[in-house]
Design a protein that fits this description.
This protein has 127 residues and is mostly helical. A two-stranded antiparallel ribbon has the order 1-2. A two-stranded antiparallel sheet has the order 3-4. The structure holds zinc ion.
Amino acid sequence: MKSNKQRRQEIKQHRVQRAKKQAQNAAHTAIPKNALKANHAALSHNTTYSPFPLYYIDKPFTCKDCGKAEVWTAAQQQWWYEQAKGCIDSTAVRCRACRTQERARKAAAREQHLAGLARKYGSLPRQ
Ligand SMILES: [Zn+2]
C-alpha cells in the first residue's frame, strides 16, 4: 500500500501533467475569424480559478430594461475586460440607450442624496 505522501506526490504529478496538456490544447485552438484574441496579461486584475477566455466574439443579448435585442461586440468586450478592468464574470445587460438613461438616473439620485446630506450637515462630509 502507498503512503499518503506517495499518493499526494502522484496526484500532484498528475495535475501538473494535466495543466500542461490543457495549455498545449489551448495553444492549438483555432480562433474564429471575427473574434479578437484575449490578452491574458491585461486580465490579471481578476482573481478567478477558472481559465480566462481565449478570445472575444460578438455576443447577442436582450436588454433587461426595454427588451431590445442588441449585440455586445468583441471590441467592446475587449475594452471592458482589458482597459476598463471589468470583472471577467460581468456581461452587458442594457442596450446603449438604457445604459445612458440608467447613468443619468444614478447621477441624479446621487446628486439628490448629497444635496440632502449638505442640508443636514451644512456642508458635504467628504467628496
Ligand atoms: Zn434597453
